[in-house]
């Protein structure tokens, strides 16, 4: 019952996520239905963090979560989460830039020609507009290097990252 209710609520959220319309990047179609997947425990998340290469393995996940609060109005991170003004970030590491189905990217992102990894994401987060001119992302950037490390580590822990 709880699972069915959660799926219903998540499905409704996907349909109501039109707040980002007008930004030109949001898809008119909701993302795929959330999968019935095991929610990682705190111990499993700690193991993912410990497995990351330096400097991410010693990041402050709570700070990363706090920094992600700036991103939540445009991005979801759960598997099957809706695309908002920005795309869902679950599985972003290892995904080709501009390749998420059901999301309308800017030409700059579609033609970026790289796969998302910590190095590319760090440069993107530092200065999105100069890293990839032509992006429609309005975020001004996260200047503090430690905050970017913490945010990237948080995203790796929370978005289904699997070490190569």
TrEMBL record:
Q: What GO molecular function annotations does the UniProt record carry, in alphabetical order?
A: electron transfer activity; heme binding; metal ion binding
Q: Print the keywords alphabetically.
A: Electron transport, Heme, Iron, Metal-binding, Transport
- Keyword Ion transport on entry: no
The answer to whether UniProt assigns keyword Metal-binding to this entry is: yes
Q: Which InterPro entries match?
A: Cyt_c-like_dom, Cyt_c-like_dom_sf, Cyt_c_1A/1B
Domain Cytochrome c stretches: 59-159
Question: Which PROSITE patterns does the protein's record reference?
Answer: CYTC (PS51007), PROKAR_LIPOPROTEIN (PS51257)
Instruction: Tell me the superkingdom of the source.
Output: Bacteria
Pfam families for the chain: Cytochrom_C
- What PANTHER family does the record tag this protein with? CYTOCHROME C
Question: What protein name is recorded for this chain?
Answer: Cytochrome c
Source organism (scientific name): Phenylobacterium haematophilum
| Source organism phylogeny | Bacteria, Pseudomonadati, Pseudomonadota, Alphaproteobacteria, Caulobacterales
């Amino acid at each position: 019952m709880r699972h069915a209710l959660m799926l219903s609520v998540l499905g409704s959220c996907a349909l109501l996520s039109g707040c980002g319309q007008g930004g030109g990047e949001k898809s008119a179609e909701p993302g795929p239905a959330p999968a019935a997947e095991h929610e990682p425990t705190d111990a499993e998340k700690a193991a993912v963090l410990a497995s990351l290469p330096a400097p991410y393995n010693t990041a402050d996940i709570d700070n990363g979560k706090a920094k992600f609060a700036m991103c939540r109005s445009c991005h979801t991170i759960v598997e099957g989460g809706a695309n908002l003004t920005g795309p869902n970030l679950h599985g972003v590491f290892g995904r080709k830039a501009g390749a998420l189905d059901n999301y309308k990217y800017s030409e700059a992102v579609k033609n970026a020609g790289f796969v998302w990894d910590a190095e590319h994401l760090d440069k993107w987060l530092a200065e999105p507009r100069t890293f990839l001119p032509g992006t429609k992302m309005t975020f001004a950037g996260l200047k503090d290097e430690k905050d970017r490390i913490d945010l990237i580590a948080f995203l790796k822990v929370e978005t289904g990252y699997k070490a190569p």
